[in-house]
């Protein structure tokens, strides 16, 4: 018996079978209704038109159901993946407990994790409970504009309660109006004030940028440093670090660009700090390093088995090497950055005869800024960050946030500021604030650019 014989009341199938192709499964029910009307207006022979349309409708509904089930399955899979990622990130969280023993550290971490998960569970259950409560009230037709929910009618002594739900919901509305609304209104007003302050800050930054452009203000080298750029030999020991993790697409370009820097090989050491957990990627990066070693580059490969602290932990581990004490400056390039050959010659001379200078930050330039809409928006956003925020703060405050890459640090400044800490994932801003509090000055070079390959999701190429 055919699976859809219920429609024809068990009668045998007659006529041409219907084949539904998946070329355009997004049919509309309105189109099907129009087709029914057209076929009903035509003469039928033995009900053949009716059976054919019924099978078409059944197949379309099944295809729609299959598509909806596929969407639900993909959403469920994405949610499970997100939950697994969040669980791994929380489980790998660390605290600053370096002064205690390992046993105390494990105990404290477990305690913090237990409290954290408890707070999340309580918040989620409370949110679900309140959501169900509000949905029930919505289906009962209650809202804040209802006459029986006005605040003057919420007096407990004069209220005629019809059932338990009405009694609970009226008191919940009273609590919201008397105790929750005032602090929420205060927070909203505070957000408005903060927005006005931020807008004023942006206005002052734009005026400062205009004044810098009008007066052509920029960091100037001292006389000795200018002589260095003219050809004199000030070439201090510079350590270059390239932290990366599973950077299969860009590792060759970044390593090649750094190895081609115009700096004496004996005064420069390149550290490729590989945190990849993919054995194939690690092998490719190691082979690339070995290739440049054979070509004469002073480059080493470091791979961590345990990724404690992510990028901050990777940089901290590299700075603990014994040979680092031989170097005076450290330059950091992320795996998607490709510096120009004269990068060090345009940044390092600013440190000469300027013992208070701790950081020289260069600007980013985008290789693929016109690739699609996302890269263009990213270029606009970060161009304002470099052109306005960092340039103005660097000229007038001698402080700005380190961008995490394309910058040269004085190693002494890092050591006096406490070095890299794994307590946060924004280790660049963390070390910049601590260095500034220790009295170190920063310089931003708007005219020194480091090429950056903007990475976007694959779907954005269709924009």
From TrEMBL:
One of its GO terms (biological process) is pollen tube development. GO terms for cellular component: Golgi membrane. Keywords: Cell wall biogenesis/degradation, Glycosyltransferase, Golgi apparatus, Membrane, Transferase, Transmembrane, Transmembrane helix. Gene3D superfamilies: Spore Coat Polysaccharide Biosynthesis Protein SpsA, Chain A. GO terms for molecular function: glycosyltransferase activity. Its main location: Golgi. Residues 330-454 form the Glycosyltransferase 2-like domain. It is found in: Golgi apparatus membrane. PANTHER family: GLUCOMANNAN 4-BETA-MANNOSYLTRANSFERASE 9, XYLOGLUCAN GLYCOSYLTRANSFERASE 12-RELATED. Belongs to the glycosyltransferase 2 family. Plant cellulose synthase-like C subfamily. This is Glycosyltransferase 2-like domain-containing protein. It comes from Kalanchoe fedtschenkoi.
């Amino acid at each position: 018996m055919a699976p859809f014989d219920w429609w024809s009341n068990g009668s045998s199938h007659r006529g041409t079978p219907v084949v539904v192709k998946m070329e355009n499964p997004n049919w509309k029910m309105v189109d099907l209704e129009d087709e029914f009307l057209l076929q009903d207006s035509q003469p039928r022979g033995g009900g053949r038109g009716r059976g054919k349309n019924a099978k078409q409708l059944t197949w379309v509904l099944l295809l729609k159901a299959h598509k909806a089930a596929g969407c639900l399955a993909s959403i469920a899979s994405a949610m499970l993946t997100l939950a697994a990622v969040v669980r791994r990130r929380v489980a790998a969280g660390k605290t600053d407990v370096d002064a205690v023993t390992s046993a105390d550290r494990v105990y404290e971490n477990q305690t913090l994790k237990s409290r954290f998960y408890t707070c999340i569970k309580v918040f989620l259950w409370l949110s679900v409970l309140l959501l169900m409560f509000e949905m029930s009230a919505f289906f009962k037709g209650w809202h804040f504009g209802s006459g029986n929910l006005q605040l003057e009618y919420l007096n407990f002594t004069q209220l005629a309660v019809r059932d338990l739900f009405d009694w609970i919901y009226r008191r919940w509305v009273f609590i919201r109006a008397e105790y929750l609304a005032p602090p929420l209104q205060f927070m909203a007003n505070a957000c408005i004030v903060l927005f006005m302050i931020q807008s004023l800050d942006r206005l002052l930054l734009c005026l400062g940028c205009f004044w810098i452009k009008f007066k052509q203000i920029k960091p100037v080298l001292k006389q000795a440093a200018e002589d260095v750029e003219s050809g004199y030999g000030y070439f201090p020991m510079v350590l270059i670090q390239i932290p990366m993790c599973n950077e299969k697409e860009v590792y060759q370009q970044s390593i090649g660009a750094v190895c081609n820097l115009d700096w004496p090989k004996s005064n420069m050491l390149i550290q490729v700090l590989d945190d990849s957990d993919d054995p194939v990627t690690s092998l490719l990066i190691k082979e690339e390093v070995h290739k440049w070693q054979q070509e004469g580059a002073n480059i080493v490969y470091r791979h961590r088995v345990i990724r404690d602290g992510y990028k901050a932990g990777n940089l901290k581990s590299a700075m603990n090497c014994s040979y680092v004490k031989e170097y005076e400056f450290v330059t950091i390039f992320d795996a998607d950055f490709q510096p120009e050959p004269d990068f060090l010659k345009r940044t390092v001379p600013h440190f000469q005869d300027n013992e208070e200078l701790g950081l020289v930050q260069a600007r980013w330039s985008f290789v693929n800024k016109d690739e699609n809409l996302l890269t263009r928006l990213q270029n606009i956003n970060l161009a304002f960050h470099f052109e306005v925020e960092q340039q103005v703060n660097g000229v007038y405050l001698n402080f700005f946030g380190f961008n995490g890459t394309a910058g040269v640090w004085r190693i002494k400044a890092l050591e006096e500021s406490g070095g890299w800490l794994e307590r946060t994932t924004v280790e660049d801003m963390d070390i910049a604030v601590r260095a500034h509090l220790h009295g170190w000055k920063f310089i931003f070079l708007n005219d020194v650019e480091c090429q950056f390959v903007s990475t976007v999701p694959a779907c954005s190429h269709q924009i």
